[in-house]
Write a structure and sequence with these properties.
9 helices, globular, about 210 residues, single chain, Arc Repressor Mutant, subunit A, alpha/beta, 2 domains, about 10% strand, Rossmann fold
Length: about 210
């Protein structure tokens, strides 16, 4: 299983690569110095399973890289690994297409757990986001990107249902529901279910 690690600090890359190789899974870690290098390697390596990347890099930085990944590799999960612990950076990364955000201060076991989650089709957000709230003056929710199916999933979320319950109610696979929930989070600019429901209610998408 191949993981592409994107960071412009060689010493940090080697440290993270060592952590990844120490996990239970047998991971082959590729390394890229910036977004352009990452996209070049992805064009040559069709079997990469996930991308780990920093936000702030020389060359093509993280946000631009996430947008390119979403455009050219929409099914490839990406996990941001950043020194920033600003909630807005987490929100921006998720809106840009990341499926998870892990601070560099996290324990190695947390990084491995976060990687397993995003590779399994789920999202990972750091614990500090549970206390984060939207700041006054934030841009209003733009729900124009939601599909009819995602609207239906959102309605079920508003009723407090789990992914398994939503799958049963809508006749979907649970993995499909997880993908829809991730897309809803990105569209609404939120990072967990409670925020999604609150944002949807503010926007009049659910009652």
């Amino acid at each position: 299983m191949k993981i592409l690690l994107v960071d412009d600090h060689p010493m940090f890359r080697e440290g993270v690569a060592s952590v990844l190789r120490s996990g239970a899974e047998a991971l082959d870690v590729l390394q890229a110095v910036d977004g352009q290098d990452a996209l070049r390697q992805l064009a040559e390596q069709a079997d990469v399973s996930a991308v780990l990347l920093d936000l702030r890099m020389d060359g093509m930085a993280g946000m631009a890289t996430l947008e390119q990944l979403r455009r050219h590799h929409p099914d490839l999960p990406s996990l941001v690994l950043s020194s920033s612990e600003e909630p807005e950076d987490v929100r921006r990364a998720l809106r840009a297409g990341a499926r998870g955000y892990c601070p560099k201060s996290a324990h190695p076991a947390t990084l491995l757990a976060a990687l397993r989650l995003v590779m399994g089709g789920e999202m990972y957000v750091p614990p500090f986001m549970a206390l984060a709230t939207e700041e006054p003056g934030d841009e209003p929710v733009d729900a124009g990107g939601l599909t009819p199916r995602q609207h239906a999933v959102l309605q079920e979320l508003g009723q407090g249902k789990s992914n398994k319950e939503i799958a049963r109610a809508l006749g979907l696979q649970e993995k499909t529901v997880k993908g829809h929930v991730s897309a809803i989070f990105r569209c609404l600019g939120v990072v967990h279910r409670l925020q999604a429901v609150e944002a949807a209610r503010r926007a009049g998408l659910i009652s």
